[in-house]
Design goal:
The chain has about 550 residues and is mainly alpha-helical. It has helices spanning about 15-20, 30-40, 40-50, 55-60, 75-100, 105-120, 125-155, 160-190, 215-220, 230-240, 250-255, 260-270, 275-280, 285-295, 300, 305-320, 325-330, 335-350, 355-370, 375-400, 405-435, 440-470, 480-530, 540-550, and strands at about 195-200, 215, 245. The chain has a three-stranded antiparallel sheet. Its main location: membrane. Keywords: Membrane, Transmembrane, Transmembrane helix, Transport. It is found in: Cell membrane.
Length: about 550
């Protein structure tokens, strides 16, 4: 039976009831939790691919002779930055692709990109080839961020929709924790970064190390930024002159290739799941929508399918009748232009916390605090645990407190935490580095503890509130273009932070770097206090009316 026999813009309730009675399920029944388990593999991959790099980078820094990539700080930032730029465009175009070809189809394509991106990264012979595959992987990450939550929200019954979408956010940080844990396991099995130097024309390396397998930290500690005497340029010149014949620098390849496994599981699993019934309705394919809905609903607990279908069709008819505007209309309308700027600022607030400086570079920061590489990679697991705990806590917070007060309190807490990290670097670590001495071991653990508290604060409120409000404050007929623009800017700021942080901490040191981030967050808190609206307890229609009155 073809849905072309019925027009969804004019269909009557009686015709809908008749269609539901006559249309069978389009395949085997799939429980919504099974669908969530499969679809959120995309979010797990999102988390794994952004988190795995923190443990891989210390090995990539090793010379080519030790099977590393011989990275500089700028190239290190590029490895994170390129992925995030790819994610910006993945988020921008992922929604368009999802609307055109379907949520399930889009997730299937993203699984393929995740797989080839992971394998391509793992076999990259140099950093330039890696940039290409990091961009591909980034597109998949951004596409997943735009598609998976929509698929879950459109597939889940309304009684558990909020919980299912919250699980999606939880799976992202779970993916990051998984990456940190696997990094720690592989680093433990293969050992910290080690290499064999057979010749040193510069004569800087002690003679007893020549021909021996030594820890790469021995060389890294020769940098002035790590308490040594060599400037950044001198250090890289020193490394380039060494004759290195062996090493375990290829350890990073094992860390990265493992994320191809859940990509395969996602590709297989999503092909067994139904397409979104709401997408079918948007494409005027009624009978396919009914067949898909019958696969994921238990009428005994979810209510009559015909009632839900009537609601879906009513929304479709209203959207068809309304005039959806583009970016040009938003920019020409003063109150919409102001609201979009507020939305962009809200999105960038999440990234200006510096949360991803921990996700990507915590081992590097801990190394600058005096911790050895292996211990730093293992210690990153603590940040992952606190991130998961914080995300779970955030689900409770958003139900108990108002959005505005949560976010402002969060940003103030983040600023104080970052300034405390800066103080530890400046007054407890830098004096030892300046005297070319190793800082006391407890200093690095103080930094780790502050990082863990920082992750708990950020993940328990900032991310949850920002993503929730970005879905609330924009008017319905321009929500797609305005939300897409804000998310695109969020990823761009994420890329800037990821690209610049390694250069900042190497050139400015931990004290000044974290002072900058701390001050920025306190300034952000003041701006949020002045411009951020409150959306708690209001319908989307009430929010839209308030936004127009406020910004006109």
């Amino acid at each position: 039976m073809s849905s072309k026999n019925l027009s969804l813009t004019t269909v009557t309730p009686a015709q809908l009831h008749d269609a539901v009675e006559k249309t069978p399920a389009s395949g085997p029944r799939r429980g919504v939790f099974a669908i969530a388990a499969v679809a959120t593999l995309g979010s797990l991959l999102f988390g794994y691919d952004t988190g795995v790099i923190s443990g891989a980078l210390p090995y990539m820094y090793m010379p080519f002779g030790a099977h590393g990539l011989g990275l500089t700080a700028l190239e290190e930032g590029g490895i994170s930055g390129v992925l995030l730029l790819g994610a910006a465009f993945g988020a921008l175009f992922g929604g368009i692709m999802s609307d055109r070809w379907g949520r399930r189809h889009n997730i299937t394509l993203l699984a393929i990109l995740f797989f080839f991106g992971a394998v391509g990264n793992a076999i990259s012979p140099n950093v330039w080839v890696m940039y290409i595959f990091r961009a591909i992987l980034g597109f998949a990450v951004g596409g997943a961020s735009a598609t998976v939550p929509v698929y879950l929200a459109e597939t889940a019954p309304k009684r558990i929709r909020g919980a299912i979408v919250a699980v999606d956010q939880l799976m992202i940080v779970t993916g990051q924790l998984l990456a940190f844990s696997i990094n720690a396991l592989i680093a433990t099995m293969r050992g910290g970064p080690e290499l064999t130097v057979t010749a040193d024309p510069s004569g800087l390396l002690p003679a007893e190390y020549i021909g021996q397998t030594i820890n790469f930290d021995t060389l890294a500690l020769m940098q002035a930024s790590r308490g040594g005497t060599l400037s950044t340029a001198q250090y890289h010149e020193f490394l380039s002159q060494l004759t290195v014949t062996a090493g375990n620098g290829d350890t990073w390849r094992y860390m990265i290739v493992l994320c191809s496994i859940p990509a395969i599981a996602l590709w297989i699993g999503i092909r067994l799941m139904p397409e979104s019934s709401r997408w079918y309705v948007a494409k005027d394919r009624l009978y396919e929508a009914i067949g898909a809905l019958k696969r994921v609903r238990n009428e005994a607990v979810d209510g009559p399918i015909v009632d839900e279908l009537k609601d879906i069709v009513a929304v479709h008819q209203a959207e068809t009748a309304s005039e959806h505007k583009g970016f040009g209309h938003v920019w020409r309308t003063p109150w919409l232009r102001k609201l979009m700027i507020v939305g962009i600022f809200l999105g960038t607030t999440n990234q200006l916390t510096g949360v991803n400086t921990v996700m990507y570079y915590a081992p590097k920061v801990l190394q600058y605090a005096g911790m050895d590489t292996s211990s730093a990679i293992i210690a990153q697991v603590a940040n992952g645990v606190m991130s998961v705990v914080g995300s779970a806590l955030g689900i409770w917070l958003i139900l108990k407190f108002r959005r505005r007060q949560i976010l402002i309190a969060d940003v103030i807490g983040v600023g104080i935490c970052l300034l405390t990290i800066a103080a530890v670097f400046q007054f407890m670590i830098a004096p030892y580095m300046n005297a070319q001495q190793t800082p006391p071991a407890w200093a690095a653990y103080v930094i780790l503890g502050l990082m863990a508290v920082f992750m708990l604060i950020v993940q328990s409120s900032n991310g949850t509130i920002v993503w929730t409000m970005m879905g609330e404050i924009f008017p319905n007929n321009v929500r797609g273009v305005m939300n897409g623009t804000a998310v695109f800017c969020l990823w761009i700021v994420n890329a800037i932070v990821g690209w610049t942080f390694p250069v900042m901490i190497e050139g400015l040191g931990g004290g000044l770097t974290y002072t900058i981030y701390g001050v920025v967050n306190l300034v952000v808190a003041v701006i949020l206090y002045r411009v951020m609206p409150e959306t708690s307890g209001k319908s989307l229609e009430e929010i839209e009316k308030e936004m127009e009155e406020r910004f006109s």
